[in-house]
Amino acid sequence: MSSRRDFLAQGGGVMVAALAGTPTQAARRTPMIDCHAHAGHAPALTDPWTTIADPEEILRRNREAGIDQSVIFPISNDTFEKANQEIAGICRKFAGHFIGYAKHDPETEKGRIRAMLIRECNELGLRGLKLHVHPGPEVLDTVAELGIPVIYHPARVALIEEISRDYPTVDFILAHLGADMSYDWREHLAAIEMARRHQNVYLDTGAVVLTRYIEQAVHELGAEKIIFGSDEPEVDCRLEIFKIRMLELPKLQEEKILGGNLQRLLGKYRGKAA
Ligand SMILES: [Zn+2]
Known about the structure:
Elements: H1 4-9, H2 14-20, H3 25-28, E1 33-38, E2 40-41, E3 52-53, H4 55-65, E4 69-73, H5 81-93, E5 98-100, E6 102-103, H6 113-122, E7 129-131, H7 137-146, E8 150-152, H8 160-166, E9 172-174, H9 185-197, E10 201-204, H10 212-221, E11 226-227, H11 237-245, H12 251-266
Parallel strand pairs: 1-4, 4-5, 6-7, 7-8, 8-9, 9-10, 10-11
Antiparallel strand pairs: 2-3
Helix pairs in contact: 6-7, 9-10
The structure holds zinc ion.
C-alpha cells in the first residue's frame, strides 16, 4: 500500500496533480501548504537568516507535521537574481514539495525587477513574490499582470493600506499577522482591521507568539482571510501548525486556513508573454 509520503517522494505532489486535473484521491483532498518558509544561501554570514536555510530540514519537519508543500523564498540578500535562481533549483530538485516565490528589493534592484520577475515566473516557474521593502508601481504593475500573490512583511502594517486599495486585483498576504514574534500587539489588531477593510488582504499566521490574536482574527474575519505559515526553518512548522489545530475549527474552515485559501490565490496565475 502506497502512503502519501511515498506518493510525494515519487515526485507526485498534490498541487501538481490538482493543477493537471488528475482524478486521483490526492487531487480531491485539499493540500496542506505552509505559505512562509525560507531556503537557500546568502553571503552575509552574520545571522542565521543571512547565512543558510536548508530545504531538507524543512522537508523532514513537513513530513512529521503532515504538510504537503511549503512556499519557499530566499533569505536576506542585497539583490535577489541569484537567490531566486537557487529557489527555482530547489523546487526542481524536490519536485512537488515546494512552491517557489521570488524575493526582490524595490530599492537596490530598482528598474530591473519587472524583467527579472517576468522571467522568474514564466521561465523558472516561480509563483509569487516576497517583499520586505515597500514596493512601487514597477513591482505592483508587474505582479498584477502576472496574477501572483505578494507576501509582504512591512515595517508597519499601515504601509499596506494604500497599495491594497490601489491594486484591488493583487492579493496581499500580510506576514506574521502584522507583527513578527508579536513584537507589538497593536500591530496584530491593525492587521486584523486591514484585512477587514480590504478584500485582497490576507493574514499569515507564522511566528505569532500571542496566539489569542490568531483566534481573534479567525473569529472576526472568518477562515477565508487566514493563511497558515511558519517562517521555517528558524521557526518549527510542527509548532506553528499546532497553533491552528488547537483552535478546533470545523474541518472545512481548518482546511481553508491550512491550504485551501492559498491554493485558490495561486490558481489566479496568468503568466505573461515576455
Ligand atoms: Zn520569514
